[in-house]
């Protein structure tokens, strides 16, 4: 599936990798209602695309995502219904990323602030170029980053999350790696090479196995320890029934490359 080049969100699938690109650089790829709806539609399409085994979330221009569109929000100051619908739509998109049955890698360059930082934190993996900066600066404009806090606090330690939320200050990519917000920081000229090498590595695995593992990862996180072990034991026992598990184990023992059927 491929979206038009002038769409708010472009989608291009090649070699098992779907690149979903925020495509409104004139507005800093801000998450307006229209952008959120377009992103939601793109994610739904990718979820059902059997050719796509890994998703790269990227952006056009020099800013990854500056968060919500404040001009649009100001125009709707008196509509609490609109404000609620906006934040609910944003929350829906973040949950779509987490619930997508395929790994999602954020390709980050420039700036990712507020809901843009939330977008990065919601992805399964994230690679950023040197010079990229992150922040949850809502506190600076009287609007605490409460929904970005959900994704942020589930990816970095409480004290690091609170420092970002309470100060609103920018952090650089190197610090973002240290606190667990992103996986890697690389030179800008090697960003694409690194992201797509990582995506290709993952795309070479069984799509069925990746789906099982991603779902189990997020479900067990919220469970008490004993419940998590009970749940994941059941997941592994069920996983063993899959064609790809049997093929993978046999290939390993026979010292050959597996031939995945993705089931």
UniProtKB/TrEMBL annotation:
<keyword id="KW-0443">Lipid metabolism</keyword>
<keyword id="KW-0809">Transit peptide</keyword>
<dbReference type="GO" id="GO:0016836">
    <property type="term" value="F:hydro-lyase activity"/>
</dbReference>
<dbReference type="Pfam" id="PF00378">
    <property type="entry name" value="ECH_1"/>
</dbReference>
<dbReference type="InterPro" id="IPR014748">
    <property type="entry name" value="Enoyl-CoA_hydra_C"/>
</dbReference>
<comment type="function">
    <text>May play a role in fatty acid biosynthesis and insulin sensitivity.</text>
</comment>
<dbReference type="InterPro" id="IPR052377">
    <property type="entry name" value="Mitochondrial_ECH-domain"/>
</dbReference>
<protein>
    <recommendedName>
        <fullName>Enoyl-CoA hydratase domain-containing protein 3, mitochondrial</fullName>
    </recommendedName>
</protein>
<comment type="similarity">
    <text>Belongs to the enoyl-CoA hydratase/isomerase family.</text>
</comment>
<dbReference type="InterPro" id="IPR029045">
    <property type="entry name" value="ClpP/crotonase-like_dom_sf"/>
</dbReference>
<dbReference type="InterPro" id="IPR001753">
    <property type="entry name" value="Enoyl-CoA_hydra/iso"/>
</dbReference>
<keyword id="KW-0276">Fatty acid metabolism</keyword>
<dbReference type="GO" id="GO:0006631">
    <property type="term" value="P:fatty acid metabolic process"/>
</dbReference>
């Amino acid at each position: 599936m491929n979206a038009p080049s002038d769409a708010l969100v472009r989608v291009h699938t090649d070699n098992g990798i779907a690149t979903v690109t925020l495509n409104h650089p004139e507005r800093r790829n801000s998450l307006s209602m229209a952008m959120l709806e377009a992103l939601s539609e793109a994610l739904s399409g990718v979820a059902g695309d059997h050719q796509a085994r890994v998703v790269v979330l990227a952006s056009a221009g020099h800013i990854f995502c500056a968060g919500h569109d404040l001009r649009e929000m100001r125009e709707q100051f008196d509509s609490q219904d609109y404000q609620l619908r906006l934040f609910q739509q944003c929350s829906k998109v973040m949950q779509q990323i987490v619930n997508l049955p395929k790994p999602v890698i954020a390709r980050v360059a420039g700036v990712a602030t507020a809901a843009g930082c939330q977008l990065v934190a919601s992805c399964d993996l994230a690679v950023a170029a040197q010079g990229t900066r992150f922040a949850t600066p809502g506190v600076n404009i009287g609007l605490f980053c409460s929904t970005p806090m959900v994704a942020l606090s589930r990816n970095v330690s409480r004290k690091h999350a609170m420092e970002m939320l309470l100060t609103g200050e920018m952090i650089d990519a190197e610090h973002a790696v240290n606190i667990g917000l992103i996986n890697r920081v690389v030179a800008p000229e090697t960003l694409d090479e690194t992201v797509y090498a990582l995506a290709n590595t993952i795309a070479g695995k069984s799509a069925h196995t990746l789906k099982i593992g991603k779902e189990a990862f997020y479900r067990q996180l919220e469970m008490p320890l004993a419940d998590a072990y009970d749940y994941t034991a059941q997941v592994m026992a069920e996983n063993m029934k899959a064609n790809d598990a049997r093929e993978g184990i046999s290939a390993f023992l026979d010292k050959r490359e597996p031939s995945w059927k993705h089931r």
